[in-house]
Structure formats: structure tokens, C-alpha cells
Amino acid sequence: xxxxAIERRDFLKVGGGIVAGAAVGxxxxxxxxxxxxxxxxxxxGLSGDEASAALQTVVPPGKYDPYYMFASGGHSGQxxxxxxxxxxxxxxxxxxxxxxxxxxxxxxxxDGVIRAGSDPAKSAPLDWGDTxxxxxxxxxxxxxxxxxxxxxxxxxxxxMIDLADFKTKQIFxxxxxxxxxxxxxxxxxxxxxxxxxxxxxxxxxxxxxxxERYADxxxxxxxxxxxxxxTGRLVPEKSFQIELPPYNQDLADMGKLASDGFGFLNSxxxxxALGQSDKTKDxxxxxxxxxxNYDYLHxxxxxxxxxxxxxxxxxxxxxxxxVALSVAVSEGILHLVPEPxxxxxxxxxxxxxxxxxxxxxxxxxxxxxxxxxxxxxxxRRYQGKDRYGVPIISLDAAVAARVKLGAGPLHTQYxxxxxxxxxxxxxxxxxxxxxxxxxxxxxxxxxxLEKIPVHYNIGHLAIPGGDTVKPEGKYVVALNKWxxxxxxxxxxxxxxxxxxxxxxxxxxxxxxxxxLGGSEPHYAQIINIDKLNPLKVYAPGTDPATMAKSQYxxxxxxxxxxxxxxxxxxYATLMRSHFTPEQIPVTVGDTxxxxxxxxxxxxxxxxxxxxPAHNIQVTLDPGEVVNVExxxxxxxxxxxxCAQFCSALHMEMYGWLLVAPKEA
Amino acid sequence: xxxxAIERRDFLKVGGGIVAGAAVGxxxxxxxxxxxxxxxxxxxGLSGDEASAALQTVVPPGKYDPYYMFASGGHSGQxxxxxxxxxxxxxxxxxxxxxxxxxxxxxxxxDGVIRAGSDPAKSAPLDWGDTxxxxxxxxxxxxxxxxxxxxxxxxxxxxMIDLADFKTKQIFxxxxxxxxxxxxxxxxxxxxxxxxxxxxxxxxxxxxxxxERYADxxxxxxxxxxxxxxTGRLVPEKSFQIELPPYNQDLADMGKLASDGFGFLNSxxxxxALGQSDKTKDxxxxxxxxxxNYDYLHxxxxxxxxxxxxxxxxxxxxxxxxVALSVAVSEGILHLVPEPxxxxxxxxxxxxxxxxxxxxxxxxxxxxxxxxxxxxxxxRRYQGKDRYGVPIISLDAAVAARVKLGAGPLHTQYxxxxxxxxxxxxxxxxxxxxxxxxxxxxxxxxxxLEKIPVHYNIGHLAIPGGDTVKPEGKYVVALNKWxxxxxxxxxxxxxxxxxxxxxxxxxxxxxxxxxLGGSEPHYAQIINIDKLNPLKVYAPGTDPATMAKSQYxxxxxxxxxxxxxxxxxxYATLMRSHFTPEQIPVTVGDTxxxxxxxxxxxxxxxxxxxxPAHNIQVTLDPGEVVNVExxxxxxxxxxxxCAQFCSALHMEMYGWLLVAPKEA
Lengths: 664, 664
Hints:
The structure is a homodimer.
Chain A: H1 8-11, H2 37-43, H3 48-57, E1 67-72, E2 78-84, E3 89-94, H4 109-116, E4 135-139, E5 142-152, E6 157-162, E7 167-173, E8 185-186, E9 192-196, E10 201-202, H5 214-217, E11 218-227, E12 234-244, E13 248-254, E14 262-268, H6 285-288, E15 294-301, H7 302-310, E16 315-317, E17 320-323, H8 325-330, E18 334-340, E19 343-348, E20 354-359, E21 364-369, H9 370-378, E22 382-385, E23 391-393, H10 395-398, E24 399-404, E25 409-414, E26 419-424, E27 429-434, E28 448-453, E29 458-462, E30 475-480, E31 496-502, E32 509-516, E33 524-528, E34 542-543, E35 548-549, E36 560-564, E37 567-575, E38 578-580, E39 583-587, E40 591-598, E41 607-611, E42 616-620, E43 625-631, E44 636-641, E45 654-660
Parallel strand pairs in A: 12-17, 37-40, 39-45
Antiparallel strand pairs in A: 1-2, 1-33, 2-3, 4-5, 5-6, 6-7, 8-9, 9-11, 10-11, 11-12, 13-14, 14-15, 15-18, 16-17, 19-20, 20-21, 21-24, 22-23, 25-26, 26-27, 27-28, 29-30, 30-31, 31-32, 34-35, 36-37, 37-38, 40-43, 41-42, 44-45
């Protein structure tokens, strides 16, 4: 066996002239005088701009992208990692959906992440999600490269990914909220991961109420999920919610520096439109929810709420500590500020001083000042209360500026140089404009500097560090929703379209276009890869659920099959190109528990255990232990095999699961 | 409602200076004299080769890739479409695995494709697969752009994708085979789609036999799935199998032109190794299956088999017509040819004259001549029979040449100029060598011309049309199995690595590297996009399962809810930005049947219907109808919504599923 186990290092070869890794940072001394790039570009039909862009975005073999974009996968339920500026899709991390490539949900389900991710009191057993807003964990307002959180827009859940091994470790089905949008956004030291409802939900015991009772029985909830700073896990019993009026709370953002301790949620449908029905003459939601000229920005003092909860001033609702709406009002936790009609994006500036609201039906962005808001609260400069008694701060008392950008402003990111970049959905553009004079800009404050066209209707946009206290600037990635003319001959379903824009140059330049199939990268954060420090291989015998040694870890020579009544425990190992044991004889009806250890210590030496006719596909990275339990309820001879092409003798890496009939 | 429904065309803008589509073929007249590409490349740290490669692979915004690579997704169970030369991932087509992005398996399951894709007599309800070998349908030996077939290596199944809409329409769980490898390969006019077992399976009634009975009770099967040339669907009742000895039949390829009518399957483990067990002193499979110096190429005369089956000389086995091994021998359907030790790849040359076998433990490729094989069969130049009575053609009588390439040759493709390209797994290289003097080469026949290094252990490789009668050459894509130094800081699981190689230049040049996450592109075919002619939108009210008008198609104004006892039929429409109806009131325990029509006719105007707390996520392209049936077994108020960002008022595109308790 050992003789034939070919060590990969033995036959690793490096491409001709392209020394892997070593060429990083090489300067242009290799540029042969014989290379006429201008003539080549010409013969390829490239304009000067196109040729330059190619040279600015290429990451040749063996070199690395300096940034990774962690993008949601939208209703694929996944997270995607895209190299910037090459825009190559480097990794897919399944979160809410099962994935047989990584074995996620087709094995022991890593501590039952997906299974534990649907609360039966709230949800059917779910195996999809609509990932929207990834949130890298932060320390002092900057990405720290430790964990990633992301919401399931469809079902009001949060997934937690450990950036030690880039695997999903936890899904929390948040009580009291259904469809969610205001998540995940983390506080500056990842004290909390925030998620809030987008459509309110009845606060009745059974979660149902007729729409006639919408105003009095439906409620929104702002959820503050406590993060264990050792493990990154969400701790439900240390978390709390704040009850909100039944508006559609939309996007959220967390205060930082000047606004640390506050959370900001905008809203639409403060009209409480219910849509058309046979019984009423109500208009459809899209017009019913667009009647009023103002909706409300929700200003939440979470540090105050934390104290109120600690003092015991909460009610328990479905296992969650909830600050009642009346308490949120009486304790000064919740204030409203009028914001123009049906806004969508809310984005706090790097210094925390400004909260930028984009109203999709308003050509202006509204810039609120946290200083003014705090002052208005202190001086009770209210224009009144809403029907639920929540004080409404006077618009004039809170606004720092209104800046006219164009049609359909949605989201804003920052470059760290005093500039804001706002996406315009309807105009299909990104607008660069200045913040206040205290923001570091040398241009006139609150002024449009540039309008950068993009090909299609843009939703979110992302700048490296663009939502932290220290943006790096350099690029904007436009996350466009359509891609009509960017690809052809792919059938009726088009990919979404990402565009990479160079914002170091003036004017800004579109460098490349990435029509990306299979997902909707809804929102993204871009991190400098220097901030990441993942494992290369697991310590031998690691259970990824605990990151500690598994009690089922097996070493070479200790493989065994143990029968205890109708339960068969198999302690197996995998290495190139061999399963041990190779024959697993059981009897129909047995419960089989496979405890599988990948005993490789070579980086990248991943194996899988695939069992035909069974829905089992386990992927094991070097050092990893996975446990799979199944009932052998099907008589037959099944040739299990490694589905990861691992070595020259990969085809020979198989064995036999023999399920004998009872009479045998 | 209509007033607010914003037409996308109204706000479509085209990027500044980058006119979508129009720039295709533009020559370098835009190259400004101010653009010093050499200086720019230098400042980017690029060598001349790297800069040239960037210019040769870039596809600027609004231009199109001339080729699409249809690549398997390996154990992701999907198919991927990658643009060549940009190497952008343009589309993912789920086949064996559910996918909430496209709604596949989360809706009515498009005619129950996944549900119908597991035969309960053979398999547990499966929702994963291990896609290996995509096969584009062919007419006269060339891709015709109509359908794509792909095998599930794990479970012996074939998926069929319709290239009218790029959706999976059928999964056939092939009887009598478990794990499969020799599929899918189509005959030159797509008469049949071939799939064969890789590990044999007991021919007992219950599919079980102890390994002691391996030689007499286990068998391989070569399956010839009949294709309906109108619909592309596999027709089980017109298909047949040929019983084979219990060797591990590995890769297959179909004859063409000179070898039309034949199929070729190589094999390993003709030793019948079973692996280690407590009872025997057998060696592990990897060495037990590598003892003999020769295994057998299986030469199958499928046209003869077709006649034998038509004459009724078959047995029925689990619903499949099977030509018994003894009949295959007596009728001259099956012959064996010795092939060097544990081969892996078999690849028929464009003219059909040569069959190239790569033995992974042999530094030579063995080139068989169909002319010689036919002659040997006619003259019965046999060296004996195997233990099952199958005649073995003398090696010398069949071989045209043996060409020494290097360590670990696996797979071969052709450039249409008389050259073959063979991957070397162990050497990490692609070798260019010449075929016989009748192949069009002007170089010395059967001679190595060039050894092209790749970064990592390469499995398959793909050339545009490289497995057809008319390869286009131009590029080789190396599908490498590892990517160790091509990416960093991604955790223990690395992406596989694709490399694009320019074979128009001499020497060949590596142009780019694509570490591609989330899948294993195991094998790929590359098609010129001119051969594709998909739908842009569906005709109004189309059911993709039939491509005809659905009986449930609903037009605007005819939306309705009909109750019949405990069954509630909802005829709904979707358009920007509105569901009709917006309120769906039912009672717990009702069976709800949603008949949903996307009434858009604008290209790319896809919507979805996502239902919180339920495992429902339907994606509908323009004109498409989907039916979803579920039991409303959960009391509550659920805000269903569109998960595809479709318009400025996308957030307002939702409605209410109200599941009242019985007493309400």
C-alpha cells in the first residue's frame, strides 16, 4: 500500500517560466524589447482603455489577488469569495443550502449546522436561504479577519462562518422575525450582530393574525445577537430584541466612533399598506406603500437597551428577551427621524459623524448628523410622535445636508479620503461626492465630483474596507442587477453583472465586467488578504465543529469495525489512495456510524467518501474528522469511492459497503 | 399599479465610452498615442509574456467570448459554463443537485426532474451527483448545440439539459449500474448516449452478493440510451445494455467516421482485486488492481448489438433490455484488446482511425488502429479468450504505434491539424504529438513535438471541438486537480485550477490561470457560441417541462383563487413590481397549488416567488409557468416576496400568505 501511495510533492512541477509565487512583485525587467504590446492590443481589437484595463486587472499564474471580496450569493444561499482585481471566483461557502462539493449537509452536517438552523417552532426544515449582507467581524471598527456573518433574508436567520477554515459553523433561526433585511451588521467590536425584520410579524402566540389587525397585532423587531468573542458564535440567551412599529424596517447600519452605541434602520411602508384584496379597495403594495412623502429612520441606542435588559426590564418572547415598544420609548432607546419617501440604503460614514440615507424615489441623498441627532434628543426637539408613541425628531434638527445625485440612489460606500460613492439604480451610475468639511475632503463639502456610468441597474457597491472606519479606496465594485448585453446565448436566465471600477484615477475608469452565473452577489465586503490568517491544514483528528480533537479521530493502524447489537461503528481513515477498511459488511437494518479521518497532513490533500445509491458525500480536508450516521435500509453491494481526484491511483481509491439481507 | 411599474428599458443606460455590443471587432484605432502599454505593464510588475497574455484573454465589457466551455461540476452535481478565453463563470446549471438560485428542486421541480431521477428500486431519494463527462449532442460528428448530457459518476445516472433554455429536463437512473464512469459519450448523430459502470454490480435479484462470489455474480454493463431526436430525451424502452465481465470498465469513447458503429471502453482491475479484509490476505485495491501488465480495451460493435436486440435476442433485467455476455461473444459484439496496465483515458481521433489509450502507470500512449482491429476480428487474430470467453485480439494485430510521452498520461484531445494533446498527470504537463501520416500532419508521424508544462497535476484537457470530427484548435484548457500555490489564505480546501494555453503559438503559451471555487470541472467540451441558438424569453405561458403552453398559464386580469374542498388553486401572475394576488388566505391543513406565470416579455426580467418558513423558492424567467403544491401545515402570516432584484420598487414586490387556524 505505502509503495503505491504517491506523494504529491514528488511530482509537483512548476510551469515553464512561471515560477509559482516567486514572481509576486517582480518588476517589468522581464519586458522583452520584442514585445510590442500596442501592436498586439491593436490586433486584438482593443482600445487603449481596454488594453490598459487588462493590464491593471490581470493576476498572472502564481501571483495573488491583494483583496478578497466576500459576496453574498443571494438566493443561492451561499457566500462567494472573489479575487480583486482579477474577479475570479475562488471559493463558494455554502451557508443555508446543502452543497455536495464541500459535503455540507451530505455528511454528518458538521454538528448538524443546517439541521439546527431551522427552529421547528418557526420554520419548516429549511435548506435554502437568501443571503444578503455579509458582515466581517470587526475590532475597533476594522475587519479583523476572524468570522463572517450573513443573513437569510427569506427566513430571518444568521449564518456564522469561521474564517479559520472558511466553513459555516452556526445558523441561528432568530425568533419573532420572518423575512429580514436589516442584517447582518456588526457593532465596531463585534459585540453584537444585528438583524431586523423587513415585514412585520404577528405577535400572537401562533404567529397568525388577519390583516385587519395589522396595525395593532403585527410588529417589527430589531435583534442584537450577542457574539462570543472567543468562538464567534451567537449566544441567543445573551441576545435581545427591541419591538418596533409594524413598518417595513429596511436596511440597517451600525454607528461607529462618533456614533458608536447607536444603530440606524430606515423603513418604508409607514403607510401600513396591505395590498389588494377582494374585500377592500386598497391599492397594490407598490403604490400603497409609496404614498407618504416621508418614512422614518429608526435611531436605536443599543448601549442603553443593553442596560435596560440587564436591569431586567424585558419580556420573554419565544426564547428571546424583548424590550417592549413602550419601554423602548419610555427609556429613550428608540427615536424616529423623517426620511424622504421609501428609502433603501443607510450608510454611516467612516468617522461615524454622518448617516447617509438614499431614497429610491428621491434624487437627493439625505445626510444626517449624529451630533445634531444627539443634540435634538437631548433638547427634545421633536415634531411629534407616531401612532405608537415613538418621538419623531424634527427633520431640520437632524439634517446636515441634502445632495442631489440623480435617479434612484440606493447605497453608499466611502473611500477614506472624505468622499462618498452612491449607487444610482435608475440612472445606472455611481456618483462620487464629498462629505462635510470635517471629513478630510479638500473639495467643496457635500458636492458631486463625478458621475461614473455602469452598464446596468446597480444595487449595492463595495470598496475595500468601504464600510469600516478606515476604507482603503482604490476600487469600487458595482453589483449590477442585470447583464442584458454583457453575455449572449445563455438562455432566458442571465447572470448578474459585476463591474470593477478604478477610483484611483480621475476620472474613474471601468476596468472589467464579470457576468457571474449561479448566484446574486447582493452585497459584498472587500478585505485586504493580509488581514486573513486561516488554517492550512487541520491539526490531526480535528472536528471542525469544535476545532478540537475529535473523540472519533482514528490514526493509521487503528482502523476498526465494532458491532454493538444493531449498531456498527466504523473507524476509518483516508489517505492517497486508500480507504481503510476497504470492506464494510453489515446487515440490512443496521445503524451504521462512519467515523472518518483524513490522515493526510499535506496541504490541499482533500478526499471524499461518496456512497452510491445513498445520499452520502463527505468531503474531508487534511486532518479532518467527519461522522456520518445512516440506517442501512437497502440491501446491495455498493462501491464507495473518493470523489476528489487526489492522486495517480485515485480511480483505485474505493471500497465495498456490503449490505446483506437478513437471511444471509 | 401600472404607473409605478417602471419599464427597465426606460432607464437602461450604457457605460461611458463602452458601448455594449457595438465595440465587438473594433480595431485598434482607439489606441491613443498617449497610452504607453509597456510602461504600464512594467509598473504593474508584469513580464512581457504576462502582459501579452492579459491582452490575449481580456474580454472587455460589452464584448463576448467566442467559445463556451461546458464543464462538469464534479461532485457539486452541476454543469458550469465558462467563457473562453476570458475564463469567466457565466452560468451554473444544476443537474443532480437542488439549487435555490434557479429554483431547481425548490419549486414544482420542473416536471419533477430530481424526484423522477432516483429509481426507488435502485437508489435512495438522491439530491446530489458527481458530474463527470458532459456530452454535447452531435450531428455528423460535430456539436449541434441542441442538448447536453452528463453522467452522475456516483449513482449511474444521466442528466439531460435542453440548450433551448439551458435547463435540466430529465434524469435517468440507469438500471443495473451503480457507480459509472464511461459516460456520457454520444454516437456521431446522437443516436445513443452511452454510460457504463466503473465498478461491477451483483446480478442477483436484490443487488447483493458477497465478495466471494465476485467473479461469477458481479457484472459490468455498457448502456446505450436511445435519444429521441425531436426532444433530446432518453427513451429507456428503446435503450439496451450489454453485459460485461466484472472488470472496472473505465472511460469510454465513441467511434466516428472510420470507426463509426463502434464504442471503446478501457478497463482496469481485470485482476478482480477486492481489497483488504479481516478474512483474507488480499492486498489493498490500489496494488491488487495494479498487478498485471495488461488490462483490456473493450471494443463494442453497437450497430451489431442494435440488430441483435431488434431481433429479440435479449433478456429483460430491471426494465432494461440486456444482451447477455454469452450472446455478446457469440454474436461478435464484444472483443477485447490488451492495453498496458491500468489505463485511464481513451480518445478516438477526429478521423476515427485511431484510438489512443493512456495508461497512467505506463509512460507510453498506445495508439490502436480501427482498420487493424477490424481486420483482426475478420481474420480472428486472437491471442486467446478471457475467463468469460471473450476473444482477445492480439496486441500486435491492433497497435498502430506506441509513443513515449512521460509520466502519467491520462487524456487526449485533438487540434484538427493532425496533432494530439495528451495530459500527463504525474509530470504536470501537456504533450503535443503527431498522429499517423494520414492525419494531416506535416511533421514526422507519432512524434512528440512539444511538452507544455502546467502548474499542477492535470486530469482532463479540452480543446474547442477537440473530441469531434472537426476540432477548432486554438486553445487547450488544462483542468488541473490541485492549485496549491495559485491562491492563498482560503482555508484548507483549495479550488481546482484551470489553465488556458494558447496552442496557436509555437511554443504553446500559458495565458491565464483560473482557480475556480465551488466545483471540480472534471471534463469539459468547448463549443463555438455560433452553434448555440437558445431562447431569449419563453413564449407567454410556457411550461419548460414540455416547452408548450401550460394549461395553468395565467394572463393579467385573470388571476384568481379557487377553492375546491380542502384544495386551493391560486392562479397568479408576476410582473415588475407586483404579485397578483397579493393576499392568499387559506386555512391550516389546506393543500395549496400555486400556478404562477411570469407575464413579462422583456429579456432578463426574471422574478422569483420565495415563501418564508417554507422550503419554497420558485424562479421564473419571462413567459415561464411553474406549479408549486404544498400542504399549508403551519399557522401564521408569511410575507412571500420576489428574491430577484427586478426594479426600483423590488422591495415592494411582496404579498401575504395567511394560514389561519381552523377555529378562525
